[in-house]
Write a structure and sequence with these properties.
This is 4a-hydroxytetrahydrobiopterin dehydratase. InterPro entries: PCD_sf, Pterin_deHydtase. It is an enzyme of class 4 (lyase). Keywords: Lyase. This protein is about 40% helix and about 20% strand. It is of the alpha+beta class. The chain has one domain: Transcriptional coactivator/pterin dehydratase (Gyrase A, domain 2). Helix 2 crosses helix 3. The longest helix is centred in the middle third of the chain and has 18 residues. The model has no long low-confidence stretch (mean pLDDT about 95).
């Protein structure tokens, strides 16, 4: 698995996702805490199926998701693909 260039990351980053050094990040907002918890469970299942696991931080009415490919040391196509799959769940 190879790291993406800065241009490849910028061009492939899904809407509402941002780059934070060697991670891509998005905060999803919800009407209630339990809606966010349910979403975190849903994307957790997707991540498990894809065997690519994000950092998921559950807040009061938000869920922050951070993706990076630890074994590669940064952002790869797997991160961009998983971000798009998470957006499909939202």
């Amino acid at each position: 698995m190879s790291l993406l260039s800065d241009t490849e990351i910028a061009d492939g980053l899904p809407a509402k996702w941002t780059r934070d050094d060697d991670e891509i990040v998005r905060e999803y907002t919800f009407d209630s805490y339990l809606d966010g918890v349910e979403f975190a469970g849903d994307i957790g299942e997707v991540a498990e199926e894809e065997f690519h696991h994000p950092e998921i931080i559950i807040g009061y009415k938000s869920v922050e998701v951070r993706l990076t490919s630890h074994e590669a040391g940064g952002i790869t196509k797997d991160d961009l693909r998983l971000a798009a799959l998470f957006d499909d769940e939202y």
